[in-house]
Design goal:
The complex is a heterodimer. By secondary structure, chain A is of the alpha+beta class. Chain A contains eleven helices and twelve strands. Chain B is of the alpha/beta class. Helix content of chain B is about 40%, strand content about 20%. A five-stranded parallel sheet of chain B has the order 2-1-3-4-5, with helices on both faces. At the A-B interface, helix 5 and helix 6 of A face helix 1 of B.
């Protein structure tokens, strides 16, 4: 984008402001000094004429008929005192010139002016003093002559011009100095920081989220930088989160398709193989495996459905007052049979009193069954699975522990996440990549409870479910967070 | 490939392993099943097989790691067997192309029947 830089704009503004300020000052100073020069001149001329008139007049009276030299000499003496007086003349009362120092510039004085009793100060067109007409009174106070002093205008013009030039030059110097200082100041405190922030922000907007704005102060520019930094950081965090989510989603898809394909492969394979089976025993094995795979497919589909239903926030999960101890005893009874078939020892103990709790029995059953089923899956033949139920007055605590292969400490925090694909033996094993634990977790969370796991690799694991006895709907936000 | 071919089947899913073994043995192939990744690699390195059917999701060592070990002459000198990946895992494109550079085939279990696997093996040069 093409734009006029802030520097240029600031420079223009500074120039205009300073020019008008210094321009006014200069004009004022020049005018002032011209005025004072003129009044000085007038004062000097007044003093000079009042000083010079009597001696020159006296000399003229004495030597008017015989000694022009003496008059010249007297006039010269006085003229030397003030270089602005360029001519001195003596006129009679009619204005007739009787003597003039400089013959070329003899003054033209009217009779009125010549017969004046008070001094007349004549000015030219530009207002400068040009002539002083001063009456001469002789010893007996008779107005006999008038002296005319011609004042040089060139001199005063030169002086005014010189004064004006000096003031203008000083002004210009001050202007440049102030402009320079102002610019350096604004550049250092405003423009440079803005420029830097703008450059770094451009890098961020170009996609470099690692770029940080250098914070240079506590002012608005610093605040802008801080805001941009936190914006970039939250963008980065969001992108990272989205990328992680995206990765987890594709892994989840991969695992889901694997978990759907594997039982189907077995079912289809054994069906095709029936053609080459001959004995009843062979048929029986094939049918058992088809049935097991079908069941596995069903469980997996059920888990996926439970998760999506709970995640969609389906509030129509049927909850009724059921006696949880009866339900748990029933689940334990079913599992006892299954454990026996798998050569596992199983024990069940409960100190919970019979009491109605508001739950969705079907979902709680599947959440607890998932835990028992997992324990059986990861416990070698001859191992032990224990289930205990404890009522502490506020919660029912259901513990399922096993003497199985255990879970790596690093895998524990990821155990209840939906998209987790572990790298341990545990998750790579049969159905280990399932989403049963995640399903259990969101079912328990929906009932306002919690689920935790402890494990020691090679020794076994313990899963604890805590369900509140009083009905308590968790806020939606907590369910969302648990995903 | 015809009858008498020696096959190593590295597969941890018991039902799938037995299912394929049943058909392959029926077609007179010699089949050895190993359910563990690390053990599978050792067996593949020690004993001579014509074909190795390799699953990807395996305990202790993944199929990809086994494949890389077998194709590394420093780790498995003089390795001659054909390797066919037999999995239900739909890997990402990068992994797929790595597999294609190292294995002779990539089969999705759910997309073929046991008979089709036998036909596929018979067609192998």
């Amino acid at each position: 984008m093409k734009y006029v830089g802030l520097r240029t704009k600031f420079l223009l503004i500074i120039s205009v402001i300073l020019l008008s300020v210094f321009g006014s000052i200069t004009v004022y100073l020049v005018k002032n000094s011209t005025e004072s020069l003129r009044s000085n001149l007038l004062r000097e001329a007044k003093a000079f004429s009042s000083l010079a008139t009597t001696p020159i007049g006296d000399t003229f009276v004495i030597y008017k008929d015989s000694g022009t030299y003496n008059i010249q000499e007297k006039v010269r003496q006085f003229a030397e005192l003030d270089p602005t007086i360029i001519n001195i003349s003596v006129v009679d009362q009619t204005g007739k010139v009787l003597f003039t120092r400089d013959g070329k510039n003899s003054p033209h004085i009217s009779a009125d002016q010549a017969s004046t009793f008070d001094p007349i100060y004549q000015t030219n067109e530009s207002g400068a003093l040009s002539q002083v007409i001063y009456p001469y009174f002789d010893a007996s106070h008779v107005h006999s002559y008038t002296l005319v002093y011609t004042v040089s205008s060139t001199q005063i013009d030169q002086q005014v011009a010189h004064q004006a030039l000096t003031v203008t030059m000083l002004s210009l110097f001050a202007l440049l100095l102030t402009a320079g200082f102002t610019y350096v100041f604004i550049d250092h405190f405003i423009l440079s920081p803005i420029h830097k922030v703008s450059e770094q922000a451009a890098a961020i907007s170009a996609g470099n989220l690692e770029q940080q704005i250098t914070i240079q102060g506590q002012d608005e520019i610093g605040a802008l930088g801080t805001s941009l930094n936190s914006m970039a950081n939250s963008l980065k965090a969001n992108i990272t989160k989205l990328q992680e989510l995206d990765k987890m989603k594709s892994e989840f898809m991969m695992i889901t398709s694997h978990n759907l394909r594997t039982p189907l492969t077995i079912i289809n394979g054994y069906i095709e193989n029936t053609a080459m089976l001959t004995t009843v025993a062979e048929f029986k094995v094939a049918l058992e495996r088809i049935a097991a795979s079908s069941k596995r497919l069903g469980t997996f589909a059920e888990d996926v459905l439970t998760i999506s239903r709970f995640e969609l926030g389906d509030t129509d999960i049927k909850q009724e007052d059921s006696d949880i101890t009866t339900l748990l005893k029933e689940i334990a009874g079913t599992f006892a049979t299954s454990a026996k078939l798998q050569d596992l020892k199983f024990s069940y103990e409960s100190d919970a009193k019979e009491r109605p709790v508001r739950i969705s029995s079907a979902h709680i059953r599947s959440a607890i069954w998932n835990l028992l089923d997992n324990a059986a899956k990861f416990t070698p033949k001859g191992g032990k699975v224990d289930m205990s139920v404890h009522d502490d007055g506020q919660n029912v605590l259901i513990k399922v522990s096993d003497t199985g292969i255990g879970i790596k400490a690093s895998e524990l925090p990821k155990l209840f996440t939906k998209f987790h694909r572990g790298t341990s033996t545990l998750t790579y094993d049969y159905e280990g990549t399932g989403i049963g634990l995640y399903a259990s977790k969101i079912i328990v969370a929906r009932h306002g409870g919690t689920i935790t796991a402890e494990s020691e690799e090679g020794k076994g694991s313990t899963f604890t479910v805590s369900l509140p006895l009083a009905t308590k709907q968790p806020p939606e936000a907590e369910i969302a967070k648990s995903a | 490939m015809s009858t008498g071919t020696r096959i190593l089947f590295i597969e941890d899913e018991l039902y799938i392993a037995e299912l394929y073994a049943q058909v392959l043995q029926h077609s007179n192939y010699t089949v050895k099943i190993i359910a563990d990744g690390a053990v599978g690699l050792q067996v593949a390195q020690k004993e001579p097989f014509d074909v190795i059917l390799l699953d990807l999701m395996l305990p202790n060592m993944t199929g990809m790691e086994i494949l890389r070990n077998l194709r590394d002459p420093a780790k498995t000198p003089g390795f001659q067997s054909k390797v066919i990946i037999l999995t239900n895992l739909d890997e990402d494109d990068a992994t797929k192309s790595e597999i294609q550079s190292m294995a002779q085939g990539y089969l999705i279990k759910a997309e073929i029947t046991p008979k089709q696997l036998v036909q596929y093996l018979q067609q192998l040069p």
